[in-house]
Request: fold
Amino acid sequence: MNFEMTDDRRMLAETLRRYLADSYGFAHRTKVAYEAPFHDPAAWTGLAELGVLYAFVAEDAGGMGGGGFDVAVVFEELGRALCPEPVLPALMALRLLTLAGVAVDGVLLGGVRYAVAIGETDAPYDLDEIASEAVEEDGLWTVSGRKTVVYGAGAADRILVAARARDGLAVFDVEAAAAEITAYGMIDGGPAGEVMLDAAPALRLPLDAGAVAEALDLAALALSAEALGAMEAAFAMLVEYLGTRRQFGQPIGAFQALQHRTVDLQIEIEQARSAVISAAAAADGPERSHRASQAKHLVGRIARQVAEEAIQMHGGIAMTWDYPVSHYAKRLVMIDHQFGDSDHHLERLIARLQEG
Reply:
């Protein structure tokens, strides 16, 4: 396996890192992530103009990428900057629309913003338990049900809804204005919302449960890469702190116990990187779902460890609002709960092993 990035991906990563450093500093991030609309619309436009969304779509569909490594490169930089822009729902929507054969020009240019509504209160992760229903009458579809913690819902123009039709799970395109949306900011920043659908007019897309599962696998890869970027940023802050905070006349990083803990943490982060690389390499193959679950499970466990260790070795300062580590820790913990936590993905892996 080639662990080196291509020149195009390296250029994308460097360009995105510079843009986020210039436009999404920590002070700006804490200002926009926790106040309505819980992100920066100007920065969203800037990301679209930068061509970030093009990295999620294959060339034959109008994009410039579409591979697993393209997704990983973008989300690692987003995680490093702790960027709360609703890029994840855009990624999932682009994959679903592309699979449905729908033109995605408007989305790529940032003019049309999508959210993807899958999880429900009684079915946060399991597609088989989805209760939202779609009904067809005289060739027209309507969708009813409640979707919970829909990322980017408050900022969306349209929503792709997973609902159950008579012939099985399907995907429906609904105008956001046709749904009742209760928008809010997540505890770690960024826009989300509860989506209530009461016979909302919808357009059925030629997609089934397999397409929804593919979008979820892609989300697992993206979140794992985002966590990797956030872990590396938190680790860099920890190393800097250990080298500058002095106690008993010397930097606390000189104490052997902290050195051992820091090295162990770095080893864990490198394991997470290996899992992300494995999932990215398998994103377009038959092992996609298996590798995505492996990455999400392992990264979720390591992310929590990094969050806890960074706070403990920093001490009380890491619990304050004005110090970035506290925000990275919140994001790392919450990533584990998005689209399947560590336990859920471990259960998926066990089930596949039992199936043979």
